Amino acid sequence: MVSDELLEILRCPHCVQEREGMLVLMKDTWLVCQEEADYCGRKYPILDDIPVMLIDEGDKWISVAEEDLPVPPPER
Ligand SMILES: [Zn+2]
How far is the CA of 13 from the centre of ligand 1 (A)? Predict the structure, then answer.
């Protein structure tokens, strides 16, 4: 598990420069950006308890609906 403390400080790397970029944990293995200002929609997988906070990785999942995110996330 990723600790609550870590989850609290993580932000979407794409949004955090100008906005809050708050993330919400989904299905215990995805961090979904909640930034709606210009609908971000990036989703970051947690692999082996390590959140993959890369914009390129988040980009891959923009068009995937939250309910369609694979569990567990695919290995990179
Ligand atoms: Zn974002």
Answer: 7
